[in-house]
Design a protein that fits this description.
Elements lengths: L1 H16 L18 E4 L12 E10 L5 E9 L4 E9 L2 H7 L1
Antiparallel strand pairs: 1-2, 2-3, 3-4
Length: 98
């Protein structure tokens, strides 16, 4: 399960960071099992999560086959929630979800 979470995270972030030479997506990924809300247990700090607690990522599939992810976290310093939304359109993922 940990490998699955890390692999999908790497795939989602690859749109922002580029795909490293020796990394390839999982060929038998079952996206249906990944949909829903995930709670952060530990993390490697990213600039967009800095200072946030109660962090979640919620994955859903829209009508066009795109995966939507909503990342949320609470800023104690600002006493408010922070949220970012992203979309993924990976052809191998879309095939498995339709």
């Amino acid at each position: 399960m940990k490998a699955l979470v890390l692999t999908l995270t790497a795939m989602v972030l690859s749109g922002c960071l580029g795909m490293p030479d020796k990394v390839s997506p999982v060929s038998s990924f079952d996206g249906e099992k990944y949909m829903g809300k995930w709670y952060e247990v530990a993390r490697i700090d990213n600039r967009f999560e800095e200072g946030l607690s109660k962090v979640t990522a919620e994955y859903s599939l829209d009508d066009s086959g795109k995966v939507t992810v909503i990342n949320r976290g609470f800023s104690e310093a600002e006493n408010e929630w922070s949220q970012a939304e992203g979309k993924a359109t990976l052809s191998s993922l879309t095939i498995l979800l339709t």
